[in-house]
Amino acid sequence: MSKQPIARVLLDTHALIWYADGSPQLPVATRQLLDSPVVERLVSIVTFWELATLLNLKRLALQPNLATWFELVKSNDFQILPILDKHLVAYATLPQVRDHRDPFDRLLIAQALAEDLTLISRDGKFGAYAGLQVRWG
Is 8 strand, coil or helix? Predict the structure, then answer.
């Protein structure tokens, strides 16, 4: 019998990069949470879309390449969350938040809300979305 997760988390793009790189920018408590065997860790396909966009615009250098990152995420027991119809329905009804129009962030927020996930992010603007559970630190 497998254990039920005590938490289900969705990583924001910067959280995934900092976790994978072992960056000190990721708080120790957050790293410990992500390393816990009883936490279900999800990475949205939206994150890979954002990474691909940043690579294409030459605003990010990702080593060794994006294909390897897909394999890294899967081989480390992270689940890749696809974009489902209920996520787009939630996206369409998100309130407009001043100075927060980033479509990648907003789709991650919609996914977290639709799936009842805690979003791992340091983005302070996420607190403006009612019902969204955000954790950093």
Answer: strand
Is 45:70 a contact under the CB 8 Å cutoff? no
Q: How far apart are CA 90 and CA 94, in angstroms?
A: 6
pTM, two decimal places: 0.92
The domain that holds 11 is classified in CATH as 3.40.50.1010
* CB-count exposure of residue 26 (10 Å: 0-12, 13-18, 19+): buried
Domain count, the chain: 1
The residue assigned the tokens 């949205």 is 44
**Strand ranges of the sheet holding 133-135, from the earlier edge strand across to the other edge:** 79-81, 39-44, 7-11, 118-120, 133-135
pLDDT, residue 137, reads: 85
Q: What is the pLDDT of residue 3?
A: 67
8 A C-beta contact, residue 19 and residue 128: no
HSE value, Cβ hemisphere, 13 Å, CA-based, for 108: 32
